[in-house]
Structure formats: C-alpha cells, structure tokens
Write a structure and sequence with these properties.
Strand order of the largest sheet: 2-3-4-7-6-5
Structural class: alpha+beta
Mean pLDDT: 80
Shape: elongated
CATH topology of the largest domain: Protein Transport Mog1p, Chain A
CATH class of the largest domain: Alpha Beta
Number of strands: 8
Largest sheet: 6 strands, antiparallel
Strand content: 15-25%
Radius of gyration: 22 Å
Helix content: 40-55%
CATH architecture of the largest domain: 3-Layer(aba) Sandwich
Order of helices and strands: HHHHHHEEEEEEEHE
Low-confidence stretches: none
Number of domains: 2
C-alpha cells in the first residue's frame, strides 16, 4: 500500500483498520500521524453534531438551516485536512522524505568513502545511473520508500554532508523547498522522476548539488 492509498482510505474512513493499512502505518510515521489527526477531527465532528449549542429559551428549537450550517462547517474542515495531505502530493512527498531520513540517523555519521560497487548496486536496483565521483559518496543504500526502491546517498560537499534520494517514481511540476525537523531540503524535477536533497544546516548549496544531479542522473529501462 502506498502513502496516497493509505491517506485516501483514512480520509474516507478514519476508523478503518486492515492488515495492509496497519503494515504500512508501522513503517510510515507520516501516515500514522495523518491517521491520528483524522481520527481526532472525526471525533470532533461527531461531538459537534451530537451536542448542538445551548438554546436561548428552553422551549425553542434550532432552525433547520442552523443544523445544516453546522454540518457543512465540520465537513468543510475535514475536506480541508484531506486536501492538505492528499491533494498536495509535493507536501506529502516532503513529509515522507523527512520521515525516512529521520529513520536512518546513522547515515549522517558516515565519513568513509565506500566501494563503487556498493554505490552501483544501490543505484541499479532502483533503475538509476549517476555520473558522480564516487569518492564524494560515503553512504549508499537501496531503501523502500512509497512502494519502490530508492537510492539513499550521503554526498560530502564543501558545506558538509547532504542526503540525496533519487525518486524515479515521484514527479513534481517545479522546484519545492521545505524546512522541518531541523532539516532543510529541496525537491526538483528530473525527467521522468525527481530528486530530493537535504542537509542539516540552513540549506545552503543544495540547489547547486540538485542541479548537478539533474544533469548527471539517467533512468534505466527497468526498475524494481
């Protein structure tokens, strides 16, 4: 199950629980947080509908239009949350990228150059070739993210280590920046996919690295 599928399901039925969904939520903090928010909102809506505001007179009755207005307001609030998480895929993608990088904190600590074969293996499994000097890469893994294998690299730059995720199956229309959890990042379009670059500082130099990767990446015919 992908993040988009999970969020569409939870947006329609916040209380839903199934094997596929639970397995996805165990490995996806962002979607788990989304479920908590949706369940909180659902409970708020139920309370609002079940307990109308106190009336000015004991014998008064709420006008039908007031009940409809209350129902409409809470439904609009729910739709706003769903739109924020589901209809803006770039924001959702950034959250998933951050959650994944947070799950591998040891990657930032890697400083030793790794074997070029390790780099090639991580790239090839995702259907990617990258023309970059291997002595700049100190970490290379093929990670499962949003339903696909994704190369997760640490590239040493003049401003310190930068995390790179090459997202063959994720497309963005334009450059996107984000700042969250002590990290700054940029996601840029790259042919049929996209590339995410993150650092732990103020994000300086990320655009230059992203531009280089856009030029150097090549998508292979097949990928897992």
């Amino acid at each position: 199950m992908t993040c988009d599928e999970a969020r569409l399901l939870l947006g329609a039925e916040p209380g839903f629980s199934g094997t596929g969904l639970e397995e996805h939520l165990q490995g996806c903090p962002a979607c788990s947080h989304f479920r908590a928010e949706m369940r909180t909102l659902d409970a708020t809506i139920r309370r609002a509908l079940e307990r109308p505001p106190p009336l000015a007179h004991a014998d008064a009755r709420p006008a039908p239009w007031r009940q409809w207005a209350l129902a409409a307001s809470v439904v609009l609030a729910m739709l706003a949350v769903v739109a924020l998480w589901v209809l803006r895929p770039s924001d959702s993608l950034a959250r998933d990228v951050i959650a994944h990088v947070q799950g591998e904190p040891e990657s930032w600590l890697a400083t030793q150059q790794i074997d070029a074969r390790e780099i090639g293996s991580a790239l090839q499994r995702a259907g990617v070739e990258l023309n970059i000097t291997s002595d700049k890469i100190t970490y290379a893994q093929s990670c499962w993210l949003r339903g696909h294998y994704v190369p997760h690299l640490i590239v040493q730059t003049a401003r310190g280590p930068a995390t790179v995720l090459i997202l063959r199956h994720e497309q963005v229309d334009a450059r996107r920046t984000f700042h969250e959890a002590g990290m700054s990042g940029v996601i840029v379009p790259a042919g049929r996919g996209s590339i995410a670059v993150l650092s732990k500082d103020n994000g300086g130099g990320l655009d230059e690295l992203a531009a280089q990767l856009q030029r150097d990446v090549r998508w292979l015919p097949a990928a897992y």
